[in-house]
Amino acid sequence: MRNKLLIIIVFGLQVTLANHTFAQKIWKFKDSVFSFIIKADSVPYFDNSGYSYKAKTIDIYKIANREKVQTIILPPDNVIESYLDSFRIFKIEDMNFDGYNDIRLLSEFDVHMQSYFYCWLYNKSKGVFERDTNLETIANPEFDKKTKMVEGYERIGFRDEEDKVWKYGSNGQLILIYERDVNADITGDSTIITTKKRVNGKMVEKTVTEKFE
Known about the structure:
By secondary structure, the chain is mainly β. It is built from two helices and 15 strands.
């Protein structure tokens, strides 16, 4: 009886998902100056077992007078899983340390639980947010306001990982100043750690091997 009931529940869920109209999703965020409204379409999985979101636009309004200042059309290849909390999806913070908040939207959350983002920096003179594709290559980005450094961390495999640190140059470009790669060697009984540090404008490399205990 329990097995029959389970089959009926599962079948009912599949029918519900198959016949469900996947409506538009709206997220709302704001800081002290702007409000951000993100609109997305829900997209069912191929087997109708669930769904994800595909963000379409970000509408940006001035809070003071409710004037719309910008609509950002999003790249079509973004995927936002429906189980993710909103704080993982959209971030408002100063990413280039110029004193103005910038924004980023989740573009990918992969199997290693790594986050990649579409990024826009605020252009004060134009009063709009402009896309920065350099920041979009950084996995799990963190922005240290004290040191004015940008940090990224990427797990490539079970034992393989990579840390990187950048700083902004005088013309606003990102400069890699530190890199650490950890990889298991071919025998699997030790780890190869390669670090690179920028010294006098050049990256100086050092490699060590550590045995597993």
